[in-house]
Amino acid sequence: TRATYNAFLNACAARAHSLATLPRARKSHLRKLMVNVSPLEPLKLAHRQLGAMAERGFAPDAATYMGLLRTHSAIGDAAGAQRTLSRMLDTDVRPIHNHFYAMLYACIRHGLLHKSIDSEPTLALASSVLPSMEALGLPVTDRAISLTIGAYAAARKVHRTVELLDELPRRYSRVGNAEAHKWVLIMCDRLH
Predict the structure, then answer these.
(1) Which of 8, 30, 94, 187 is the most exposed place for a label (fewest CB within 10 A)?
(2) For residue 97, how many other CB atoms are within 10 A of its CB?
């Protein structure tokens, strides 16, 4: 059933997250035991599962896309998350807030996991999420604002992060919240 496929996709997301956050010593030990510790492997499995699902006549639903988004997010694949959300919209599956949160989380994970890679495309993607939510008639939430700020904080964009702390709540008529400030504190810890 579709629920079984979706459960497998969620398991792929959990596995990708576990592998992406494994300490180096643990990864080294597992490699010696011939365990594949690449976080890309669960992502490949998730996409194969999506293909098998289509072959058996099951169309992806919102939960299917959420599982894929979570898998891309776990490894910091913001571009893959964007492609997944675009495919979702192309197939007329209406996203909810959690789909956009997963995309923003992918942007945050990208900044946390891929420090040496140019962050500008990922930050442009993060900046496009709030207007996209509005265009789809979804209200912009405090959580979406906090995660957008988190993407800049994860990329260590100090000045822009501080600007967004004031700018985004004002632009969307929201009150600032503790989660946004949490991302700033995490950024400060990472700068030292």
Answers:
(1) 94
(2) 14
